[in-house]
User: Fold this.
Amino acid sequence: MKQFISKDIIKNFLINFVLLLILELIFKIVNFFPIFDWSTLRILLSNIFISFLVASIEYFFPKILTKIINIFIISLISIYALAQSGFNNFIGVYMSLGTSSQFGAVVDYIKEFIFSFRWYYYFNLIPILLISLYYIFLDKKVINKYDIKEKEPLPKKKLTECILIAVAFLIIVSGSYISTLYIPFMQNKMQSISNKELFKNPSVPSISIKEFGISLFGVLDVRNFLFPKEEIENYVFENEKNKTTNNNSRVFDDTNWNTIIENEKDKNLNTLNNYFINNDITETNSYTGLFKDKNLIVIMMESVNDIFINEEMYPNFYKLYNEGWHWENNYSPRNSCSTGNNEMSGMIGLYSIYNTCTANKYKKNKYFESIFNLFTNKGYKTFSAHDYLEHYYYRNTIHTNMGSGRYYGVEDLGIKYSSEYKNWASDEDFLEKVVDILKDYKGDKFMTWLTTVSSHQPYSVSSTEGDKYLSLFDDLDVKKEMKRYMSKLKILDNGLGILLDGLEDLGILDDTVILLFGDHYPYGLSKNLINTVLDYDVSEDYEAERVPFVIYNPDLDSKVYDEFTSYVNIVPTVANLFDLNYDPRLYVGTDILSDDYKSLVVFADGSWRNDIAYYNASKGKIKYYTDKEYSVDEIKEINEVIENKMNMSSLAIKNNYFNYLYNKLNELNTTTNES
Assistant:
C-alpha cells in the first residue's frame, strides 16, 4: 500500500484538491457567497472525493497523460467558473445545460457578454496559472526530493488490496458528505429548497452552487440533464378559505374535477389536480368589469426599464405612464431565457422553469386558461405580433398553441428587418403595421399581444437604431452606450405615438385599454452605467429588475400603486378587469387589484421582496427596510408558498397539465350532456 500511495496517488490528489479548493474559495469571494458557513465544509468534502477519485483512476495511466488530465480538469473548471460568474452578472442567473438551446444566441452578443465581466472574475483563472507553473518549475524537483520514480506494476494481490482501501476511503468521504445534507444544524432554516432535494435535482442553480460549489454543481447539472428528475412528492394541499362564500365569492362546480382526481392514477397529475383545485379563489371587487367589452393591447417592451420614464425625451410613453395607472414596484425578474420565458409567464400566469428555456422546450403545450383563450371565449378576436424572426423563440408555434388567433412575424408584417445581430427592425414600422391590421378589426372586439424589439442590445457598437436619434442626446453627460440605448428607446416611443394616433383615427382609442411592461432591464448596459441615469441604485436587492408596468385608457383617472408585483399577475388582473370567465385557481399569479393580494415579487431563484424586507434565497439571508421583522417560521411559511408555486408551475408545464385538464373536463362534460 505504501508503494501504491507514495508514487502518484497522494501527489495527484493534492494537486487537484488544493487547486480545486483555491478555485472554490475564489468563486465564493468574487460571487459574494459566504465563506465561513457549513457549505464550505460540504464543498471541502466533495473536493476530497472528486480529487481522490480522479487520482485513483489516473494511477492506471502514464504520467504524461495524468499531467494532461490534471491540467485539463483544472482549466475546464476554472473557465467554467469564469463563464458562470459572467453569465450571472450579464443575464442574472447561473447557466445550466437546460438552457443549451440558447447557447447559439449567446454567440450573437459574445462581445457584450465578455465586456460585461467584472475585472475580478478573472481571478477564477488563477488555478490554471498555478498548475502550469507547478508542472513547469516544481514537478521535477518534487520527484527528485521524494525519489518518486516511474511507477512499477503492483502484484495482483497488492493492487486488489489498494483498490479496496481506496473504495473504502471514498465510501467514508461520500457518507460524510451525504450526512451534511441531513444534519439539522448544517441547514439554513430559511432556505426555500432543502439541500437533499437540491442534490437530487439542482433546479435552482444559484442556491445549488452556493451550497455545493461550482465543481459539484457542474457534475450534478450534467447528471440531471442526462437523467432528469421529473417526479415531485405527492403533496396534499388544503385551503380552508375556499370553503366559505359570500356575495363577492366566485363559486365553481368542481364535481367533474373531483371525479378526475378520484380516477387519476398518475402521481404527478394528481399532485397538480390537488394543488390547483385548492388554490386561492380571489373574490370579485370594485375593479371587476371596469373594462368590460373594451379592446386590449398588451405591449411587452424589449429591454425597457425606468429610464423610459422621461417626459422630455419620451413624451408618448410618459403620457401613458402619467395619465394612466402605474405600479412603482413592478419587476420583470430575469431567468434563463428572459424575453421568451417572461412573455410566456405573462400569457399564462405561471412561473417558467428556472434553468430551462421553457417557452421553446415546451412550445407544443396548450393552455386553455391563457390570456388569448379567455378573450376568445368572450367573443373577442385575438392576434399577436413581433417584429423579428423565429431565430430565438418559436413564437408562431408558441402563440398559436397559447390560443392566439393569428401570429404575425416580421416577414408577415412586411417591414424592413436585418438578420445582422446589431440591427433590428424599427418599432415605428412595427406599430404602424399593427394599426393597419387593426383596420380589419374595426367593429369587432379585439385583444392583441405585441412584443417590440428596437431597444434590444447591443449598445456598444454603431447600429441603425442606436444612431438614428443619437444627436438628441449630445448634451447628455453619459457614455455612448447609454446614448445608443436611449436612441433606441426613442424609436419605441415614436412607435407608441403612431399607435395612439392610429387608434384615435380609427375612433377606437376610448374603447381600448393599453397595458405595457418591460420584459427585462437593458442588461447589455452595466449597472454602474445605468446608475448614472436613474435616481436609485440598481446594483443591490434586485433593483435592476425594476421595470415599468402601465395600464392606460383615456377615461382612467391617473393613479399610482405601490404594491410589489410582476408579469406573473397579468392574466388574473386583466381577467377580473374585463370580467372574463376565468378560474383564479389556475394561476400562481394573483389579481393585484384584489383585496386578497399580498404585495410581493418573487425572483427566479426564489428570492423575494416586499415593502418590509428583501430575502436573498441564494445566500439564505434577509434584509429589512422597516422596524418590523419576520420570525423564522414566518419566513419559512413565505418560502414554502413560493416553492409550491414554482414547483407546481414547473410540474404543470413539464406534464402539459392544462391541456390534460381541459381534455378530461371536456370528456366528462360531453358524457354528462349525452346522459
